[in-house]
Amino acid sequence: VRRRRQDDPSIPGCSFYETFNLSGREEVLPVGIYNLLLHANIVVYSYYYMLDPKVATYVSNDFPKNTVVIFDEAHNIDNVCIESMSCVISRRALDRCNQGIEKLVSRVAEVKQNDAARLQQEYNRLVQGLREANAARETDTVLANPTVPGSLRSADSFISFLRRLLEYVKLRLRVAHVVHETPVAFLKDCLEKVCIDRRPLRSCAERLQSMLDTLEFADLGPFSGLTLLCNFGTLVSTYTKGFCVIIEPFDERAPTVVNPILYFHCMDASFAIRPVFERYTSVILTSGTLSPLDMYPRILNFHPVNSASLTMTLARNCICPMVGHPRLTSLFLNMAFASKLHFSLLSPWD
Asked: What GO cellular component term, any one, is given (predicted)?
């Protein structure tokens, strides 16, 4: 049919596969693909769709409780848990926040002039409780907060809140030495400097998403910095234990260039996977190199119902060669493909 339609455009056709291939090249999934997850018997995706609360809230929330969750090759699942609950904010990301705020201001002014009822409807939804229906269900709502504070409900008030939060983080990045503090100390200093309380911080990620949906932006790329800033505000105000805030004046990739970076680091991998254990009745972890077996229950803070170790035999003696690097031998050799471009490590991928 496709070949005939190329010669005769009047022949009816289906553009699903063309759209699917185009979306794959542009790294954007086809429209409505997430709705098909509820009709599938088996869903295969990355750990982050289940463990990262910023993604799981929109992708994995509607799976039933009797879903069997299998983390295959889970020997590095603790690293994924820690990474999904951590944030890294650089000066470049804060510059993007300024651009995002200006776009919000101009878009809000345009909507007020042409369609003010849209902002009023959003305000009414927030007053009534934007997520009352979702809060009634048992979901992985780590970033969700059903009641948005009054100081964030109007668009102008929320934009003013974003400006204050952005200026505070910029102020904290003006350091000449390494700063290490707890989330409680960070929130206390934020309250004293810019009068931002813990409660509006917990709702800022949800409020930003609501505003972006209401203003109907076609391209959300310019708001990546704001999304990162709001996610950081929600995480730092939600978790007071098991996390730390580290501010370094130099980037580890260029230790001689002043480039301050703020790290919100998770030190307990169990925070990310705990909602999965609490919601689903069957969770299975498999790995060919998971040893010893009693180590991961301690790291992830759970009590396994069944655990089994299967012996492995090789049909023949295998040769495992190690390829050395012909260049400087005083540098570390790293097998990770992700670190192949790191200047201080040698990689066999070179």
From this structure: nucleus
Provide, rounded to the nearest whole percent, the portion of the chain with pLDDT above 90.
Answer: 27
Q: At 173, which helix (H) or strand (E)?
A: none
Token pair recorded at residue 215: 């203003």
What distance in Å separates the CA atoms of residue 119 and residue 165, rounded to the nearest whole number?
23
Q: Dig out the tokens for 18 from the structure.
A: 């063309």
The DSSP secondary-structure symbol of 258 reads: E
Residue 172 DSSP SS3: helix
User: What DSSP character marks residue 318?
Assistant: P
Tokens 């200006």 identify what position?
Answer: 102
Tokens coding 289 = 């190199």
Encode 29-51 in three state secondary structure: CCCCHHHHHHHCCCCCCCCHHHH
The residues near 149 (Cβ < 8 Å, ≥ 6 apart) are 199, 200, 203
Task: Report which of 99, 43, 49 is spatially closest to residue 67, judged by C-alpha positions.
Answer: 43
Residue labelled with tokens 């101009």: 106
Q: Is there a contact between 100 and 290 (Cβ–Cβ < 8 Å)? A: no
Encode pLDDT of 164-216 as tens digits. Answer: 999 999 999 998 889 999 999 999 999 999 999 888 898 888 888 888 888 88
Please give the Cα distance from 65 to 59 (Å, whole number): 15
Reported residue count of the chain is 350
Identify which of 57-71, 115-129, 182-196, 215-229 has the greatest average pLDDT.
182-196
Phi, psi of 8 (to 5 degrees): -130, 95
Q: In Å, how far are 79, 160, 302, 304 from 298, measured between CA atoms? A: 14, 44, 7, 10
